[in-house]
């Protein structure tokens, strides 16, 4: 999957329609690059959301290492005035982020997010990027 892959956009739109209050859905790589997203999220805001979600997941990983069992981040939730940001792992090196309004039922949204990841998580992988000299050395 590339950072501009749109082959799974319809599944993200389907998730958005399954639970009241979902505004945006985005799949991002671990390093903060958008992979695909719902159509109401413009490119600049998708980039911004990907960067924010990657930062939150990075903090979650650090918390797991320092205060947990170092198994990694599970789910992350950020509540702010006007809504929520929910983030779950979605395949190797990828995350699924959902932005909701205050009217959303967090449990229902999280359940649908996890169902989507179970269905398509094997398609949502983002291998680490390499520098050109690293890629040349492996050939």
What percentage of residues falls in helices of 4 or more residues?
A: 40-55%
Mean pLDDT: 84
Q: Helices and strands, in N-to-C order? A: HEEHEEEHH
SS content category: alpha+beta
For the biggest β-sheet, the strand order reads 2-1-5-4-3
Q: Low-confidence parts lasting 5 or more residues at pLDDT below 50?
A: none
Q: Please report the total strand number as a whole number.
A: 5
Radius of gyration: 15 Å
Based on the model shown, name its key terms.
139 residues, alpha+beta, 5-stranded antiparallel β-sheet, 4 helices, 5 strands, 40% helix, globular
Structure characterization notes:
The protein is α+β, with helices and mostly antiparallel strands and 139 residues long. Helix content is 40%, strand content 24%. The chain has four helices and five strands. It has helices spanning 9-18, 43-67, 106-120, 132-137, and strands spanning 22-29, 34-37, 75-80, 83-89, 94-101. Strands 2-1-5-4-3 form a five-stranded antiparallel beta sheet, sandwiched between helices. The two termini are 21 Å apart.
């Amino acid at each position: 999957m590339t950072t501009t892959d749109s082959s799974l956009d319809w599944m993200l739109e389907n998730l958005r329609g399954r639970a009241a209050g979902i505004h945006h859905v985005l799949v991002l790589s671990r390093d903060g690059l958008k992979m695909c997203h719902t159509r109401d999220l413009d490119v600049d805001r998708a980039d911004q959301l990907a960067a924010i979600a990657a930062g939150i997941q990075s903090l979650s990983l650090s918390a797991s290492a320092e205060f947990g069992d170092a198994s990694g981040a599970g789910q992350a939730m950020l509540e702010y005035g006007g809504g929520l940001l929910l983030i779950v792992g979605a395949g190797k090196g990828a995350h699924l982020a959902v932005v909701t309004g205050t009217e959303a039922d967090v449990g229902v949204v999280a359940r649908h997010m996890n169902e989507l990841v179970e269905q398509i998580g094997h398609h949502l992988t983002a291998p680490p990027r390499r520098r050109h000299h690293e890629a040349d050395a492996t050939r």
